Amino acid sequence: MIHQFKKTGLIILILLTIQQKAMAQNNYDSQWKSVEKLENNGKTKDAQAAVEKIIESARKDNNTTQIVKASMYKYKYMMTLEEQSEVKIVNEIKSSIAQSTGNEKAILQSILAELYFQYFNQNSWKFQNRTETAEKQSDDFQTWDLKTLFKEINKNYSASLENKTLLQNTKIAEFTEILNKEKSSRLLRPTLYDLLANRAIDYFGDTKSNIDQPADAFSIDNANYFATANEFVKIRLDTSDANSGDFNAIKIYQDLLVFRLNNNANLDALADADLKRLQFVKEHYFNKSENEELYFTALKRIKTEYTKCNTAAIINFEIAQIIVQKNSNNEEANTSKVGGLKEALAICDETIKNYPNTEGATNCAALRETIFHKNLSITTEETVIPNEPFKALVNFKNINKIYLKIIPINFSDKDKIFNLKDKETQKDIIKRLNAIKPIRIWSQNLPITDDYLDHSTEIKIDKINKGYYAIIASTNDKFLIDAGKEAVAVTTLFSSQISYVTKENNSENYELYVLDRNSGQPLKDAKVKFYRNEYDYSTRKYKRTELGTSTSDANGFVSKKMESKSNYNYNNNYFLFDISYKDDFLTSDQAHYHTYYQRQEPVPSKQVHLFTDRSIYRPGQTIYFKGIITQQDGDKHKIFTKEKISVIFKDVNYQDIKTQEFTSNEYGSFTGSFTAPTTGLLGNMTLFTDYGSAAVQIEEYKRPKFEVTFDPIKKAYNLNDKVSATGKAVSYAGANLDNAEVKYTVRRTAQYPIWCWFGWRSPWFPRTQEKIIAVGTTKTDDNGNFTIDFNAVPDLTLDKNMKPYFNYAVSVDVVDISGETHSAETSVRVGYLAIDADVSVSEKIDNAKENKITVTTNNLNGQPEPTDVTVKIYDLIEPLNPKKARLWNQPDKFILSKPEHDKYFQYEIYDKEDLMSNWQKGTLVNSYAFNTPNKQKLS
User: Given Cys at both, which of 350, 363, 487, 524 links 317, Cβ 3.0 to 4.6 Å?
Assistant: First the structure.
């Protein structure tokens, strides 16, 4: 137990820890030197007696600091000397609390609460199966259930703050010896009240403290919690959920801010408390779709309120950091409501200038560096055609010009160059590459950008001969890395006329075709050398195992038999290969897998199919079952008659409970029953035979008494209309459930029409978040009916031109008089378009046959909606030349003009020519006009 207690570290406190070599006060100096000497000499028991004397003297002198310090040493020695020390220490603290008053009592109550919480964190698994009790059954905290433990923690943290006046008039400087001091701690926590209040808030803000969630749980559900400090302290907190962590934290924040507002000489302490209050509200606010916007607005407000104190630097950093986070990419930057990175830079510069040598200024300087950080990468195709120009994609940030060079590499030296050895970094790879003479060096201007965001562009690289190369791109002509300031990017590629196409089939041979990369013609007499890289554990290196060589025929065809490594009928080989053709060479870009199953004739198999009368039973109930015995022979099935079979009833531990013997009748079936056990562990049990089994659940369950359903939403609504969702609660006996409480929540989500995806490529859509737009309670009427009313408020931050739909999910919990609860959910769909039209056309149209087009029109809730429809069919003008698909995302900046691009890369995409949505409409083929109820299919 002593070892376990040391491991839990209950006495290693967060803020009130004893410092081993703290300087003692005046007449206690000699006593502490004596304690230190005894401890260093290993005389722990004598040291404990010495601190007992210090406690006695400190009590006479009413010296709280020395009492607390000596008590901490005493508890430390108890951990070493005594068994069951955790209980004894807690009892000692409780005894000291009962005997003490004032500051000493408040500190000890805060410490006791923390000890309890640390015990929970280290032993949370022990509470999983403890039965909750209405009252505390014992003074031994190790036996408490979870609810009792957290009630005691809450009680002690709250009690530590009861004597506000005394705590607020006690300077923190009096407790220097027992505090772990941090920078600005005395400025931001000038009194004992500030310290203890923040300790309590840290606990109540932990989500673990909200384990007990009653039906009327307290919720931070009002935007006023983000208001000014003067307005915030006036919010009336009205709840029966007194043990709520959120409630207690908000209450303490109110008291703390009242104290700070009345003592505003220390503006930093007020600003710090106000900022932390806003941070807490943001993290715990009920509506996650609004909390960030409300928090950012509040930050901009307090930025002007606290300009005369150093905490303003932290506030500025928070604002700048949010702006940077909301501008992480181009799409988000285009829809950002918080400003751009230039604004974040201005805030950082202002902070560094006006608040030098502060934590906020230091953080802003680091954030500023991330904004100016240079990013660079270069991508090419893995293999390009020799003596023809090719494209490379350059991703860049904060770079206007790059330097490039192409380095020839002997492929056999690849691993020596690019594999990192012990303690090596990317700089070592660059150093090895720079030592090789390049075949070409040049510079390339990039599109000018000043938004500090990542961008991409495509550049042309002139032709190269056959071979294997590395291309290095750098922000400096020395091709050196300097993290953040100078960037270097490397890519490798083959220049080869060789290409290959693999063929997968279920045979012992692996097959491929070797082709000319440019013309597609077969390459005859190409040598394909197969090998496998296997890890050798003795040498800790990969070892190349040759698997043989094959030569392509006149059709470029290569077939290689892969020997099985085992005697099984299943063979799964992985391998690589190199292709040589005249003076050309290419290696496979990745490992290839060849799977071969040796087909065998199926073996007839007996099967027993078991069926039970239901899937869940109470203990003691009869489990009725039926079985059918069959035999499967390939695709043929037959039943077994007069066949004997044993059925074993197994418990949750798969131990036999009972066995019964049966003989199938002329239909191949048999019936029987078992009795569900009334003792032992309940759960998933099994009816077992050698040829099949069935699972049943044995539980002491409660049969539901009523159900809740929603009526279909048939009415079409417009945005901002009042929507009514109706439902009913009915008992399974058929009676209506009247006067039952109905708790409801309405959540809004957004989605976009399918036609926004026309062309098979999804456009970028702004992020949408779920928002709670209504919460409340109502009652069922005499007929069990209830109605939920809410306004279909749209999300005005989304572009109307994209015609978003809004789904309003209505969920209810209906509680009857006995407390039984059942839930139901429905959804109402409302949008800027009232009708959802769908056209269904076969993917393949046969001109020689009659083809059907189906048209349906529904309201947004899926109900048919008659409407006039016009369908027009056009020819699409296809591109004159087929275009090769891009192997990377389209760049957002262009250096090459379209004429220049098409001059060198006429068969490659420039700007979205591959999207069918960009093809022009040709001639009108036909037009149809009709009303949907009268005609829904067109021929």
Answer: 363
What phi and psi, each to the nearest 5 degrees, are found at residue 869? Answer: -130, 140
What's the Rg (C-alpha) of the chain?
A: 38
Q: How many other C-beta atoms can be found within 10 angstroms of the C-beta atom of residue 813?
A: 16
Q: Is the CB of residue 676 less than 8 Å from the CB of residue 701? A: no
CA-to-CA distance for 69 and 56, rounded, in angstroms?
Answer: 12
Structure tokens at 740: 């039952």
CA distance readout (Å), 414 to 417, 423, 473, 481: 5, 19, 19, 21
Instruction: Tell me the two tokens of residue 683.
Output: 């759960």
Copy the structure tokens of residue 533: 């890289």
Cβ atoms of 302 and 278 within 8 Å: the answer is yes
Q: How far apart are CA 755 and CA 184, in angstroms?
A: 58
Total Cβ atoms within 10 A of residue 37: 13
**Residue 362, by phi and psi: left (phi above 0), alpha (psi -120 to 50) or beta?**
alpha
pLDDT at 25 over 50: no
Q: Is the pTM of this model over 0.85?
A: no
The pairing of strands 692-698 and 616-617 is parallel
Spell out the alpha helix ranges (H) of 205-329.
Answer: 229-232, 245-262, 267-284, 291-305, 311-325
Highest mean pLDDT among 54-58, 85-89, 220-224, 404-408: 404-408
Distance between CA atoms of 490 and 488, rounded to whole angstroms? Answer: 7
Closest C-alpha to 608, from 533, 670, 549, 551:
670
Q: What is the pLDDT of residues 630-665, one digit of tens each?
A: 988 777 888 999 999 999 999 999 999 999 999 999
pLDDT at 866: 82
Q: What is the DSSP letter of 604?
A: P
Q: How far apart are CA 248 and CA 218, in angstroms?
A: 10
- Here the tokens at position 637 are 């099935």
717, 743 contact by CB (below 8 A): no
Q: What percent of the chain has pLDDT above 70?
A: 88
| CA 814 vs CA 641, 710, 811: distances in Å | 53, 12, 10
Q: Do residues 872 and 927 make contact, with C-beta atoms less than 8 angstroms apart? A: yes
How far apart, in whole angstroms, are the C-alpha atoms of residue 835 and residue 753? 11
Helices 245-262 and 146-159, axial angle in degrees (round to 10): 10
Whether residue 584 contacts residue 498, with contact meaning beta carbons closer than 8 Å, is answered with yes
CA gap 48, 66 in Å, rounded: 15
Phi-psi region of 720 (alpha: psi -120 to 50; beta: other; left: phi over 0): left
Token output for 246: 């959120």
Contact 301, 223 (CB under 8 A): no
Q: What is the pLDDT of residues 400-442, one digit of tens each?
A: 999 999 999 999 899 899 988 888 889 999 999 999 999 999 9
